[in-house]
Amino acid sequence: RGRGTSPFGFTPIEPVPAGTDKVVVPEGFTWSTIIAWGDPILPGAPEFDFDRQSAAAQAGQFGYNNDYTTLIRGKSQNDATLVCNNEYTNDELMFRGYTGSASLTPEQIRITMAAHGMSVVAVERKSAKAEWSYVRGATVNRRVTATTPFVVDGPAAGSRLLRTSADPSGTRVLGTFGNCAGGTTPWGTVISGEENFNGYFSAATAPADQAAAYQRYGLTGSKGRGWERVDGRFDATQEPNEVNRFGWVVELDPSDPTSTPVKHTAMGRMKHEGANVTIAPDGRVVAYMGDDERFDYLYKFVSRDTFRKGNSPKARKHNLGLLSEGDLYVAKFTGDGFEDGISDGSGEWLAITKDGKSQVPGMSLEEVLVWTRLAADKLGATKMDRPEDVEPNLVNGRTYVVCTNNTRRTPSQIDEANPRANNKHGHIIEITPTRGDDTQPTFAWKIVLIAGDPNDPTTYWNGYDRSEVSPISCPDNIAFDEAGNMWIATDGNALGACDGMYLYPLEGPHKGHLQQFLSVPAYAETCGPLVTWDQRTVLAAVQHPGEETGGSPETPLSQFPYQGDGQPRPAVIQIRPTR
Ligand code: FEO
Ligand code: CA
Ligand code: CA
Ligand code: CA
């Protein structure tokens, strides 16, 4: 199909059939691995050895299943710090003879706990045209795992709902996991969403006073992943408040490997896909956040204090507290009618907290922050098709909300912001804040992409010729390049193709001209994405290669990243022009 040449000078690739174990990039581009699961990053950590894993080794090695990926530019063009979320582990692909979590040895459980969290690693290149490689043993390198100490801040810190027998203060939590999407702040920190935390707890019974919350957060009946066998806090019957210490936005300062990462209670607790910030005209910081569950909500946080420019220790210290206090809102979308042929309308931010007070009748401040889903239910927010990455585009001042899919929406549940029943392929909504000010209580919105096969009449291509756009399914993570073009990564392609990455220009003559740039290996999801500041490198995190029924160490369904290990390894790759 003649889709022409994209504004980025590449001819889009064709969809690659599902199950193909290959990385495909456009002609004129090349790819290589920067770092893979198990690569040693801390001093003294051993080389990766699939058959000789240990928890101690893993704690010094790159984690598993990389999702959000960022590069923080260093002192020169050619050095940077790579920070990556390690969302979860595929235990069935990590260990021979796995037959379920009961088959894991305690040491194997500790390995999986050490493979979660976040990885921080220095990267460098010889010149602007050279490829990036990681620096083993660099001073900034760090692993944050399921046992790393965190401090809790904000209004719910110390709440009765956060106190446990190991931490009666309710302010010190061990670990982070389920870290999915994320963002990089203007003050140089990384924020990361704790998403599917519920699955890590065995929750045979819910405490009577938390039954509704346990139900709403998917904890009721959760079987866990065996972690309770090495650490009793993962048994919710023993330690019913431990679950409340996960599901937050966490903030990590990658410039200081000795810093204690923070869990920000002011930003609410949900299955936080991630968070991305922008600075409003008055200097306050606005964070947009999705809660990735079918029929869950879009949220916004507005900081109490304002951003300070500059890198003085005083400014840095101030900015590190910006996400600690502020107002939390949930979105309500109103359509202006389908008659105009587009899904669009106005929106309202409903306050959950304001000026340090709960705005939800019958719920205290700590309750609305810990049980944010219950608070949003009461306010009548709009039930969305799984809001994943939500990211402000700093070039055009608009924010993009990626609704990945929702096959459970029925025709009677359609609204203009979620306009398709059995939404297998997802859609992307553009939000324009009133008067260009993200702190305003209202916004305008419209859908800019309804994904699927271009021949499917329910898809929407922003006015672009259907014969010239790439098929796309299940958008998940997004990023913007320096020109404001959107890059879309997909998870769970339902068109019989591998997942991939796509360029979607939002302005200019190619506006709406969706072009496939990358296809990832068998059964992997595409994460990242990231386009470097010099537009020379695109980063992609290849998550869960080989994750499919029948995949095991004995019958691996992927060999990615093709380094001769015989087993798939999640990895971060770079794609660069050959010239
Ligand atoms: Fe971890 Fe919502 O994807
Ligand atoms: Ca309309
Ligand atoms: Ca995701
Ligand atoms: Ca993003």
Automatic annotation (TrEMBL):
SUPFAM superfamilies registered for this protein in UniProt: Calcium-dependent phosphotriesterase
Stretches for region Disordered: 545-579
Signal peptide region: none
Pfam families: PhoX
Domain of life: Bacteria
Protein name: PhoX family phosphatase
Organism annotation: Knoellia koreensis
Organism placement in taxonomy: Bacteria, Bacillati, Actinomycetota, Actinomycetes, Micrococcales
